[in-house]
Amino acid sequence: MKPLQYLILFIIPTLFFSCSEKEYKRTIKQDILTETDLLEKDINTFIAAAEKNAGTRQLQAQYKKSKLQYKKLEWAVEYFIPASARFMNGPALDELELEENREFPPHGFQVIEELLFPEFDNSNQEELVRELKVLLNYSRQIRKHFDAITISPDYVMDATRLQVYRIITLSITGFDSPVAFLSIPETSASLAYIPVIIEQLDAGLPEREDELRGLINNAVAYCDRNRDFNRFNRAEFITTHLNPISKKLYEFQKAAGIRNVVRNRALKADAAYLFAENAFDVDAFIPSQEYKFTPEKAELGKMLFYDNALSKDNNRSCATCHKPDKAFTDGLKTNISLTGINLRRNTPALTYASLQHGQFWDLRQPDLEKQTVDVIQNREEMHGSMDVILNKIIADSRYKEGFKKAFKTDKPEAWQVQNALASYVRSLNSFDSRFDDYMRGNSNSLTAEEIEGMNLFMGKAKCATCHFTPIFNGTVPPNFVKTEHEVIGTPKDKAGRQLSDDNGRYIFNKMPQLKGAFKTPGLRNVAITAPYMHNGVFDTLEEVVDFYNKGGGLGMGLPAENQTLPFDKLSLTDKEMKALVAFMKTLTDKQYEK
Known about the structure:
This protein is an all-alpha fold and 594 residues long. The chain has 21 helices and 4 strands. Helix 3 packs across helix 7 and helix 8 (183-200) runs antiparallel to helix 9 (206-225). It is globular, with a radius of gyration of 27 Å.
């Protein structure tokens, strides 16, 4: 055979092998489809066991297997198909569409979990099979969706980083495993899949991939060694494992040249990790782009905030009820109206109010601009008129330069007054508490008792399943685009024999699920914003913790049938309750520390 023939025989198989290797290299999309097929297979096996009326242990084991398989897909399902995710693994509560006055019953893993744990009641067999078939149907929908879409690297990277934040804020808190307490092994499954995702990005950064894989393997090993939900050290896990993983993912993204995905959410895409300074965007919930925050607007808003001219009789300003030294609350159970009677509700704090999608206890206004005009025009609060206020401002020479700087105008408009006031409120977020210092690497910022309190807050006490880290309000992570309400069964007075007669959101949306529903308030600076609850019924944090420890209103025997707060007792010891209060005091901004 001639040399050329030898060369051809060598080159052709080599080219064929190279092309085949490239052609058959698995993609992220293929992996998602494969994992979805495995999930469908697990659910089918689960259905078969339920139809045969298998025992509790077998059904629970199959539940765990299916849920762990879902956790491999969670990063993608939550990001690309959030509507399906809600019915795959959302809370076991009705989904409400308030605009259309519609409700949808819950489905998915959390509903099934409540049927199976701690023990399965055979009388619920038919319901279990039905719920599993619904779950199967959503699994098939997920596969069809992923089969049809294109998944780009920037979205994959964004979804992966958000998954780490989801683990910090939801997974390790028990948010989606409230009965079975499987949060730690589920966290392990979620983390273990991240190297698979990163590898498929094919970024050509093997050393950085190895670094990430090493960090994640250590985090998974930590979970595997510490599976007990109540004893899990979340403070250590976040600071030692999850924060470094978050930072390394961010560095990987930059090194790979993968652009940030710009979305309208409170968490900035360019934040290196969840607890970074300036990680949150105060413009997330503005009405439109002309309302964006500027220091000049905030300075003008500060002048307006302390000006009595905003009230009808020039005798009350915003600061009358929102006192700066009390984190912009007033220290009263409820304030006094202009007519001399007590207002119905407690004055909420304005610090961090910009990071809520919904204002007032009943969430009746969507943004701070509408909140300001609501208060100004309220007959009981300021009884002002925007038209009259505007004329006063135009006639006041002190404001001329401020409006020119803030809005480039000599002729102020009413919306600009509202925007300036709202901008001042948007400037009231410090994120410089001892808690923040600790999460940024200063291990000496918190005492052992405070760290224990943090672990209780994010674990056994279940506080963080409603007051989400790190804002500690009801704006739901990791997207931070929606603020939740809760029904906790607040009593009318300290005696606790009657339920509060304030119906909250129900006043504006006549849906039975909303009776007694109120916005989940922020807990930053909570140590100086007493008294607490929408009616100011509790004077101390100790009283608040005791109320939750009893299971809220329903746990105390009050008729709060639609309570969204779990009504089972938390069984916190006196020492644990003390530690919990100690932790909440670490959320105080430096300017309020004594």
